[in-house]
Write a structure and sequence with these properties.
mainly alpha; about 150 residues; 2 strands; single chain; globular; two-stranded antiparallel ribbon; about 75% helix
Length: about 150
């Protein structure tokens, strides 16, 4: 009986954690879109820039897979980003048949500025937390992320 009650409590806790994470994710996305509204890029373009910033040059197919978009949608996205001089297509040095998407300085500048603005926003929110609470949160979010990547 006690074990059954424990499982029920755990399910309630897990449901609350999932709900909080969903709400936090939504608020971060909303704030990110507010920040992006002062730039000439769309949220999907920003996501593409982030992937290129974090992972380096990649093919449209690789980027499509990372973003869970159709190849044709990603191609259109890259076309617009190339026109705005955020990225450029470059031939792979090892295999000239392969074309990679390369992040240009303007794309790096936008990523850098937007991420810094997001960090300022988060820093303002965390101002109400003690140093220990921030460290605990960071440690446990990292642990959660690592475990989620494994599953």
């Amino acid at each position: 009986m006690e074990k059954e009650i424990m499982k029920q409590t755990d399910l309630v806790t897990v449901a609350e954690i999932e709900k909080d994470l969903r709400y936090i994710s939504g608020l971060i996305k909303q704030k990110g879109r507010e920040i992006l509204s002062t730039y000439t890029i769309t949220p999907p373009q920003f996501v593409a820039l982030q992937w290129l910033f974090e992972e380096g040059d990649m093919t449209i197919g690789e980027l499509s897979n990372k973003m869970y978009l159709a190849f044709s949608t990603t191609t259109d996205l890259i076309d617009r980003m190339e026109k705005n001089e955020l990225v450029k297509r470059v031939k792979d040095e090892k295999d000239r048949r392969v074309v990679r998407i390369h992040l240009l300085n303007e794309g790096v500048r936008i990523i850098d500025e937007v991420i810094k603005k997001r960090q300022v926003y988060l820093n303002d929110i965390l101002a109400n937390f003690s140093e220990e609470e921030v460290n605990f949160l960071q440690k446990n979010l990292k642990k959660l992320h690592e475990n989620m990547k494994k599953s």
